[in-house]
Structure formats: structure tokens, C-alpha cells
Amino acid sequence: MTSLTIRRPDDWHLHLRDCAMLKAVLPETTRHFARAIIMPNLVPPIVTAAEAADYRDRILSAKPRGSKFQPLMTLYLTEDTDVRDLRAAAEIGLIHAVKLYPAGATTNSSSGVRDFTKVKRVLENMAQIGLPLCVHGEVTDPEIDIFDREAVFIDRVLDPIRRDIPDLKVVMEHITTKDGADYAREGGDKLGATITTHHLVINRNHILVGGIKPHYYCLPVAKREEHRLALRKAATSGDPSYFLGTDSAPHTDANKLLPCGCAGCFTATNTMSILAEVFEQEGALNQLERFASLNGPAFYGLPANDETLTLTKGDPVAHPDRIETDDGPVTVFDPQMPLHWHVSE
Ligand code: DOR
Ligand code: ZN
Predict the structure, then answer these.
(1) What's the distance, CA 118 to chain centroid?
(2) Which residues does ligand 1 sit against, CB inside 6 Å?
(3) Whose CA is nearest to atom 7 of ligand 1?
(4) pLDDT at 214
(5) Residue closest by Cα to atom 4 of ligand 1
(6) Most buried of 68, 96, 118, 245, CB within 10 angstroms?
(7) Which residue's alpha carbon is at the smallest distance from atom 3 of ligand 1?
């Protein structure tokens, strides 16, 4: 196959930040994606409907001229989330999901949830109105090894919540393990999982062998090769449980290249070329549309996009190494392989 036309893809997990960073990174997403679920972990986080509406306006103002990109807003769940405010925001179609960060799990998660019993009423209300919960699925218990935090979260936190509130729609965000992929597949139609581009490409050796590579450090951290292979199998299977959420998370190089650098891989620029390469390697180009364009809308109860995107195979594509922003450069994820799939509309 040398050319592939798919429905226009969506990104079901995206960090756009704000101000200068927003302005610089937004075109990288709007070039290929029609919609994206926008993460609310700004400083301070987006916790109220009014804050989500303002943030949505800032995103729309930063959009390149002529773009029809739609930001799908989320609220950041705290132990003080106001149920009435949340329900009203969902009813008017302002928010499409709520994000659960265990406190301390990742970037700007300090306002997240410490005691899960304190958010039970909010989760019950979300189940009633069919509003999905997007979960950063890692425990923060210092006793638990960082490479085990996803599997332990499923047992200790996620499974008990889902048994307690079976009607709650849950997205396991950026799964990184075979355990996560298996749990998502077996969880019925109220459970889905996003998979990032970078977790299909790197394992933990890429971060640590031959010198430390801060640009491959993200959370949840990449795991062993067997887990990467399980994620590739899941993403390319066509199973409706799995869909694309890039978790494209821009940080300036100055903030990545530190003794204690930030977590995040910036993949908005080359995600579609990388995915085409990965799906081709797996002999599954015919499943790319399901993963990037069909399974996500089906889970969120939205129509697939009418417009299309065409990928054409040719000479290696030249992507920029970095995006310039007024805050400083942001390095684009390096997949360490030539990419042959060119994207056009
Ligand atoms: O690597 C990550 N970066 N993981 C997250 O969960 C948050 C994200 C960010 O906001 O930078
Ligand atoms: Zn994220």
C-alpha cells in the first residue's frame, strides 16, 4: 500500500498549556487533528466550568486562521469539585470528561485526589449523566516501584471504583503495560484506554541505555519491551477498547534538561507519520483508522469526522527537530527511525 485515506483523526489526550506555549504548539495539532480532549493540568488547574469556558476561548483565539479544530474541554477533579457546576458544564456540552490525577502522580497534580472516598458522589453523578472519567492510572505510594505503579493502581484503585460504580465510563489514559491493555479489553463497553504514540515506539532501555535521555522521560514511564509489544498488539488490533491519546506534553528544553527534569514527550508534530510507520510494521495499516479516527468518537458518543486525511508513502519525511516558542525551544519526539508516510488533507 502506498496511499491511505482515513477519516480525520482526533487526539483523545492532549496538553496544550497556555499563553506563548499554547500559541506555538496548537498548530502542530490542528494541522492533522479535528478534535482533542484538552488536559486541565494548568497552573492553577481548570476546576470550574467558568475556568474551562475561558480556557476554551483562549484556545479558539490561538487557532490558526481557517482551522475548524474543536477543543473538547475537561475539568480537573479535586476533593472539592462542585457537582452542580460539573453537571451544568456537561449539560451545555462545554466539558466532555473529567480528569482524575492521584495527587503527586505527575506534572501539576498536587491538587489531585488523595482520598478516593471524597470524590465518590461526583463519580456517581458522572455515571448518571454518562460523563467519562479520564484516569491517570498510577499509585503514588512511595513503597511501590515506579515500574509497577500502573498495575498496582488497577488492583488497588481502579477496579474497586468500577465495582462500586459500574455505570461509570472510564478511560484508562496512556496505558503502558500488558496488564493495562488486558484490563481495558476485558472491561466491557464502559471502559476504554488511550495509547500514546511514544509508548508504541520506546521501551525503558531507550531512556536509560547509553546515557540518560530526558526527551524520552514521561509519565507513566515507558516499561519493558514485552509491554511495548503488548501495546502495539492492542493498538493495531482494531478492538474498540483502544484509541489514540497522544499525551503530547510540551516542555521547553530548559525545563526538560535539568537535574530534575519535567515528564513529557512532544509528539503532536509527527504522530500521524509515526503511527503509519508503526501500523505498517505490524502489517495493520487497515486498522489505523479505527485506532486514530473511529474508536475514540464511538466511546465518547460523538460522530466520526466527515473530513479525511491522506497518508502517502515516499522518501523519508523531514520533521523539524524542535518547535520554537517565545518561552524557548521544545524538542519534537525522535522515533529513531526513518518515517516514510507523508500526511496531506
Ligand atoms: O509525561 C507526562 N507529562 N505525563 C503526564 O501525566 C503529564 C504530562 C504533562 O503535563 O507534562
Ligand atoms: Zn497527559
Answers:
(1) 25
(2) 15, 41, 106-107, 136, 218-219, 247, 249, 263-264
(3) 107
(4) 98
(5) 219
(6) 245
(7) 264
pLDDT in tens, 66-103: 999 999 999 999 999 999 999 999 999 999 999 999 99
The torsion angles phi and psi of 331, rounded to 5 degrees, stand at -75, 135
Residue by residue, DSSP assigns 175-227 as: --SHHHHHHHHTS-TTEEEEE-SHHHH--HHHHHTTS--GGG--SSPP--HHH
Residues with pLDDT less than 50, the chain: none
Q: Which residues are catalytic, by number?
A: 247
Quote the pLDDT of residue 106: 82
pTM, rounded to two decimals? 0.98
Q: Which three cell numbers stand for residue 59?
A: 484556545
Q: How far apart are CA 112 and CA 80, in angstroms?
A: 10
Spell out which residues have Cβ within 5 A of ligand 2, the ion: 247
C-alpha span between 326 and 14 (Å, rounded): 20
Alpha-carbon torsion, ordered 136, 139, 145, 148, to 10 deg? -60
**Cell numbers of 210, please?**
547509553
In which order are the strands placed within the sheet that holds 341-344? 3-7, 308-313, 341-344
State which ligand 1 atom lies nearest to the alpha carbon of 108: 10
Side-chain half-sphere exposure of 112, counting CA atoms within 13 A: 23
Task: Report how far ligand 2's centroid is from the alpha carbon of 39 (Å).
Answer: 7
Between strands 170-172 and 133-135, the pairing is parallel
Please report the sign of the dihedral spanned by the C-alpha atoms of residue 230, residue 332, residue 292, residue 18.
positive
Q: Is 211 exposed, middle or buried (0-12, 13-18, 19+ CB in 10 A)?
A: exposed
Judged on CB neighbours under 10 Å (0-12, 13-18, 19+), 183 is buried
